[in-house]
## 1
Amino acid sequence: MTITSYNPADPTDLVVAVEEPGAEAVRAAVGRARAAQGDWLAAGAGARSAALGRIAEAVEAHAEELAALIVREVGKPLAEARGEVARTAAIWRYYAQAPYAPSGAVHETAAGPGLLLTRRRPYGVAGLIAPWNFPLAIPSWKAAPALAVGNTVVLKPAPEATACALRLAELAGLPADVFTVLPGGAEEGSALVDTADVVSFTGSTGVGRAVVRAATERGVPVQAELGGLNAALVLPDADIALAAAHIAAAIAGYAGQKCTATSRVIAVGAAYEPLREALVKALEAVDDAVCGPVVNAAARDRLTGAVSSAAEAGASVLTGGGVPERAGWFIEPTLLADVPAEHPLAREEFFGPVAVLHEAADLDAAIALANDTPHSLATSVHTRSLDVALAAADRLDAGMIRVNAPSSGVDFHLPFGGAKGASHGEREQGQAALEFYTVSRTVSVLPGGGA
C-alpha cells in the first residue's frame, strides 16, 4: 500500500507518496530506538540540551520553507502556517532547558544515617501518534519533552501530514534511531502502541479509545487527546463586536480544523440578537486567507451533509453552508440556529468551519448547556464582569477556559488537555509533559557497615 498526501487547495497536486512500511518495520524501528536509548541518555543533559537547541535553530533557519510546506500539505493559511513554525521553534527551545531541571529530590531517613532519593527516569521508547492539523507543532510538543528527559522517539504522523513529519526529522539531525518517523496507517499505529514503552496519541475519539485500551492492557503509560465540542459563552455585558470577532476566528480559522475550535455559541439573554447579527457579519467577512480548505473531500462532504441534515430537521442556516465553485476542498464558514438537541451537529465534533448558535436565559442555563457534552476541551467566556468570569471558570467542565479570547489558542508552556472524554491520562506540554515521559524511582542508600 502507498500513502499519498495531496494539497487540499489543489487536489491534483501530489505532495508525497511513500510505501507503508508495515507492522514488522515498526517493531524493528522500536527495537533500534530501544538500543539507541541508552547512549542518548548517557550523553548527558548538556548534549541533549544542545541537540534540542539546534533543532530550534534549524526550524527557524528554514521557516519560510516549512511554512510553505504546511500550506501545501494540509491547507493551512500562510499566516497561521508561519505562526505554527515560530511556535515549533519555541517548543524545542523551551524543552532544550529541561535536561538541566532537577530530576528528583533528597529526603530525610525515618531513623539513622542514610540517603533517600527520588528520581524521575525515562521509560525508553516513546511511541507518538500525531494528527495532521498541526503537522509540526504537535509532533514537536510530543517529541521534544520525551527526548529532553532521555527517551528515544518513534513518530507515526497522520498520512495527510507525511511530508511535514519527514522534513522535521531531517532538520532535527539527531543520532541514528533517536528520532524516527515512520509514515503509516492503522496497521503501523497499532504496531507502535503494541511495542513502545510509553504512548502519546492525538486524534479521533474512536481510535483514541482503542489506543488507550491497547496500551493499558500492556501496562504502559498512555495519554490521549481526543478533541472536543467547544463552547463560547457570551454575556449581555460583553463587547459584542469583539466577542463576535473572536468567535468567528475560532469557528473559521484554518477552516475550524483545530481541536480547540468553537462549534457551539451560547448567547445569554439579551446578548442573543446583537450577537447573531454581529457573528453572521463577521463570518461573512472571513476569506481564504483565514479559513482555507478542509483537509480532503471526505471531510468536506461530511460537513455539507451534516448542514443539510440539520436544515432538513428544522435548523436555520444563518450564513454559509455552501461549497464555492472552484478547485479545492472548500466550504463556506457556516452558522446555524435552532438545531435539534439530538442532532449530531449539536452533539459531535465535525472538525470544520461550522458552528451552532444557542440561546440561554441566564448564566446558569448557559453553563448547563456548555457542560452538556461528552467531551469538552476548551471554552471561552465573554464578559466585562470579573465576578462572572471567575464563577464561570469554577463551574465549566473544560480543560482550558479562556476569558475574552477565542477558544482556539494554546500557550505551549502550559498544560494542555480536556475534560470528560476529551482527554485520557496526563496533560501534554509544560512540566506535565516532562512528568508523563518519566517514571519516579525511590532509591535508598544505607551505610554498608564496613570499616
## 2
Amino acid sequence: MTTTTEVRSTGEVPGDWRMAKRLWPFLLASAVSLIPFTVFGMYLVPIAAAADGSVAEIGGLRGLGGLAALIVGIALAPLVDRLARELVAAGGLALLGLSAALGAIGNVFALATFCLLIGASTSILAPSIGAAAADRFTSPAAAGRAATLVSATTSMMAMLAAPLLAVPGLFWGWRGNLVAAAVISLALSAAFFWRGWGRKAPLRAGGAKRMSYLATYRALAHVPGALPLLGVAMLRTAAFMGYLAYMAAFYDEKFDLAPGWFALVWSLSGASFFVGNLFAGRYLAADRPWLSSERTLLLGLLAALLAVSAFYFAPSLPLTLLLTSLMGVAHATVAACVTTLLVRRSDALRGSALSVNAAGMSMGTFVGAAAGGAGLGLGGFPGLALVFALITFAGVLLALRVRPVAQT
C-alpha cells in the first residue's frame, strides 16, 4: 500500500524497541486516552459526593460513554480513512481534553457530558492512532505488529494508570488529575494537528479514488474474513468484560477475599492480558505458516472457552488464580489476532475496520454486562459460566469462518 504518510520500513519487522521509538507519539496518545475514565473510576466516591449524587447514579453515567462510542464509532468510521490520520487523532485528543476539563467541574450535567465525550473521543482516537502506526510500515506483518503494539500499550496503561495517578492525586485530588489530563491531551492534539496539517488521506492500492461513505462499508464487508472477525471481537469483549464485571463478587463470595487482596487479583488479570497481548503480537508478526494467525485465533478462543467453563467451579484459590491468568492471556491473544488480521487484510480501509471494531467492542461491553447479570440472576455463578461459555463458543464458530488468504 502506498500512502502520503511517512513509510519508513522495508518488509522486515523491526524489534519492539526500535518500533516503539518510531511510534512513541501514538503510544503516548494511546496511554493518555485512558486517564480520564481511570480517574472517574478511582475517585468515584468523592466525585459522587461533589455532584450530590449516589455512587450508583454517578457510576451509571459511565454507560453513556459506551453508548457514545458505539454510535460515533459506527457513524464516523469512514472518516478515519478520508482524512490524514494525524488530523483525526488531533480531533480525538481535543475532544478528550475538553471532556476532562468538563469533568473537573464536578456537577451531574458536566459529568454526564464528560462520559459522553470520553466515549466519543476514544472511538475516534483509538482506530486513528492504530491505523497511523500501521501505515508507518509497508509489510503486512510489520503493520499488524505496529497496531498490536499500540493496543498492548493501552492494556499496559489500564494496569498501571491507577497507581500512577494515585501519587499526584494526593497533592491535587481528582480534579487536579482531570485538569492535568486535559492539558496533556490538548498539547498532544496541537502536536498531532501541526504534524498532520497539509497531509492527505492514505491512497488506496493502485491510486484509486476515495470511496463514498456508504461504499466504504460495502467494501469493508467484502474484505476477506472482516465480518466474522468483527463478530469475534464483539463476542470476545462481551465474554471478557462481562466476566470482569462480576469477578470481584465471585472472589468475595467464594473465597471471602477482602478488597485489598482482590486488587492483587485484578493486577494479575491486567498483567496477564498485557503480557498476552504483547507476546501474541510479537509472535503474529513473525507470520509462521505452521501456526498461522487464523489458527492462533481459534486456539485462543478455545483456551478462553476452557478457562471460563472451569473458572466458576475451581475448587481452590490457586487454581482459580491460574484460570484468571489464563483468561487474560487467552483473550489478549484473540484481541491481538483480530487486530493483526484486520490490519493485514483491510489495506487502506484499516482505519474504518479498526473503528467499526472499536464500536463493536463497546457494544460487547454492554452485552456482556447485561447477559452476565441475567445469568447471575437466573442461575447464580453457574449461570454466569453458562452465559459466558455460550458467548465464547459463538466466537469459536465465527473464527472457523476466518480462512487464510494469500498476501500480496
